[in-house]
Fold this protein.
Amino acid sequence: MNKSILIHNNNIKLNKNTETMKYLSFGLDRNENNKDVLNSDTDRYMTKFILEDIRNEGEFNLIFIKDRLSNNYLDLYGLLLAYHIRFTEDMKYIPIIIISDLDSHTLNLMTPLARILFTRNIFLIANSPDEINKMQQLTYIKSLTKDNFKIDFLNLIKVDAPASYVSRHSIANEWAIYKWAKELKISDSKNINEIIEELSQQLYFKYLQNKYSMTDNIVEIEKEKKLLFKGKPLQIVKKAKVEKKRILYIDDEWNKGWNDIFKTIFTEQKGYKFEAIEDILYKDKDYNDIKTKIIDKIERYKPDLIILDMRLVDSDHKKKENSKNISGIKILEAIKSEKIKNNINPAIQVIMLTASGRSDILDNANKDNKILGYIKKEHPEDIYSDTKESIEKFKKLVDKGFEKSYLKEIWDIQNTILKLDLSNEIKFEVKSVFEILDSDMEKRYTYAMLSIFQSLEEINNIYINDKTKKWIDGYVNIVVEDNGYTKQKIEAVLKRLDLFQEFTSEIYIISKMRKNAIHPPKKSKYDKPTKENILTWFKMLQIILEKVSSDKPNH
């Protein structure tokens, strides 16, 4: 005789022939006495209590389950429990007999869970002592094998994700955290471990874990953990001490795992300072409730890079919500738009996070506000997602963001210059420098150099008549060279402004690089401008223009 266990809710018919069976009785009624089920946490209840009680009863080679484990005729929790057993490692191959007062056709009409009745070693019998006794006497029922499990069970069933958008958003977030933590081998995070423990109790994630363990190898990574970000922090011109790169993380679910993932990524390296906005309660808030604190934090922290979640408040999850009203997009606009007045440097680089399948929103964000890019919190049903590729993409975006962090200083220099009393021609060239550098054009450093050089020519035009090569205001202490090249003229202006010794070498370098850019040598290599050159020359231009603005030669 088989060693059997029977799980019921005192709603089966038994006789003396079934007395040798082990019995477990569970009432899964939705009432105040069972808060787990009352809170729709049936998966947790089955994992923590029923499965554990079955396990405590010893080993069995048959499991009988009544289809209804509550007084609700439609719940059919017995079928749900059968799925949980199939996805539980130490009992997944045991044959299961479902006891019901209904036939398989009727059950299939009532619930998609009835799919399990058409898989191998799942048997449906009538609620009768004779039927139960007959099944218990059978000797030919064998346990599933690993191949049977895959071919005759896993490939034949499907556990659906929750239908609501908010639930799907949460699933994508938790699934991505799970996969990133596995890939990065993060095992010491309390938040992530709690998430994984919670996930392990949910039927949908048990299904995913069994499904992908055979196709995507979601197991501990065997290779040695490698550092994501190599290289040294960017050396900013004329700074003896290298400042730490500042990263700010903005997400309503910052404390549900991502914060620990980013801390692991950034604190393993030297030269980074990472913070998350942790003092905002996003629940039941709208954009106006959170924007002031977020803007204030950005202004005070002055990050080089912001990791920004797209949907921060509950209203963002409305299906018909205008994409421009989504809170993360509005924060992005506040960072990048000059029309919105605040003390935020728009050169701050932004990577957006999203669990949304609507990439068009992020594409528009990139077009309108120049984000570095976005990382999608992969949903388990997205068959094209790849965790390693997502992490590698994130690494490249972060590296690109740090490489572009010098633009913050470019922006500050530009703002200082634009406040001076200068001609529109000079202001136009100055604004062009930031716009060129903030683009992805291939030769942006060369084009930025040409705009700076054009500004030097405009300075010459303030002081020197281009035709006569004479000082416009009759200044006679310094003679202008007869050939009248820009280099000679600006050197004369620098002597007049007592800046010649400070900048003569840089004037030589920019003049030579400008000549090579306009008339490149045919048979020899030549130096091209770098961002360090641009920073040096733009700072030089600021100092010269501050002198020019106060000198007012044409007044």
